[in-house]
Amino acid sequence: MDSVIKLVVPLLLVFFSSLLFGDITGVESSKHQQEQQYSYGSTKLFAFGDSYVDTGNIKKQEAVAPWAFPYGNTYPGTPSGRFSDGRVSTDYLATKVLKIKTPIPYQWKDHAGHERLQYGMNFAVGGTGVFKTTSSNLNMTYQINLFEQVIGDVYSPSDLSSSLALVSVAGNDYLTYVAEHGGVDLGIFIFMKQVIHQTEVNLRRIHALGVKKVAIPLLQPLGCLPLFAKASSYQKCNDIINAFVIIHNNELKKVVANLNKETKQSTFMVIDYYNAFLTVFNNKGEKPGSQKFETPYKACCGGLCGSVDKNGQKNYTLCDDPMSSFFWDGLHPTQEGWKSVYSVLNLTALSN
């Protein structure tokens, strides 16, 4: 019976999504994605979005996790507001791809000198979605408003002539929808249409403010998160959730393609987290620079990571070596996980 459900439900997802969006095309392969050419060099990075790119904007009093041990244990050796044991996506895109320093978090801008500000700014806050989510009163629109305020104050329009925006959103919107509706129902496809539309609005606005290149990651395979893989004792991903993610990603790629037709150049691009994550999960040692993870769907920090009870007893367990784990907690990759993802992504053209 379970096998029948696994077969039928993804087909229903595709059917109902086609009623709303039209024909759904297959996921582009990593190889095809790598063949896309983006001739561009950037000296400033502006990051928007959620915990995958937040490097310290969430306030200590608003969230325990990223400011509590053992977060930051690998880098910088103490909690830094990153949702990981160390570096996150923004750090790797900045230092490894663009060859610049990680942009300063917005909340620290008044304490940073000119030299630190010249690499851009990070507006991302953990928990953020395209719309307001249950874990945050903020949304992407608010972050873009903050960006607009620093133009003319901290950055001149000419400063943006060699800039790249990283826009990481949408996962929290769907997690919030599921939490509020007690699960997945067919209404989620109507909600997906709203998420995709608002994402397009956001991308257009960021570009209109003067950013020359806008990169948006595809959703990672959410069904592989420890949060969902736990049901299989961390042995496999949830195929139903991943089928939904594929539909979202196909629609997002259509938006990006249409935006590039309008600008008549490759101004907008996707970063294929979906295939990159799967490539790392399936790595048997043949991918140089990518770690071989024996149990990729199991978190290093299990339970309520970073949380302690009233007696000071830990509400979590910690693995011996974070470098051996792809996931840090139930939702977020380890530093080694992000390093491996960026080792299989082909984004070198961004630094040209």
Summarize the structure in words:
The structure is a single chain. By secondary structure, the chain is an alpha/beta fold. The chain has a single domain, classed as 3-Layer(aba) Sandwich (Rossmann fold), CATH 3.40.50.1110. Helix content is 38%, strand content 11%. The protein contains 11 helices and 8 strands. It has helices at 2-21, 30-35, 89-98, 114-117, 140-150, 171-181, 187-208, 226-229, 239-263, 273-281, 335-344, and strands at residues 44-49, 104-105, 120-122, 163-168, 213-217, 268-271, 301-308, 314-318. The strands form 2 sheets. A 6-stranded parallel beta sheet has the order 2-3-1-4-5-6, with helices on both faces. β7 (301-308) and β8 (314-318) form a beta hairpin. α6 runs antiparallel to α7. The longest helix has 25 residues, at 239-263. It is globular and about 50 Å long. The chain starts with a helix and ends in an 8-residue tail after the last helix. The relative contact order is 0.16. Residues 1-8 and 23-40 have low confidence and may be disordered.
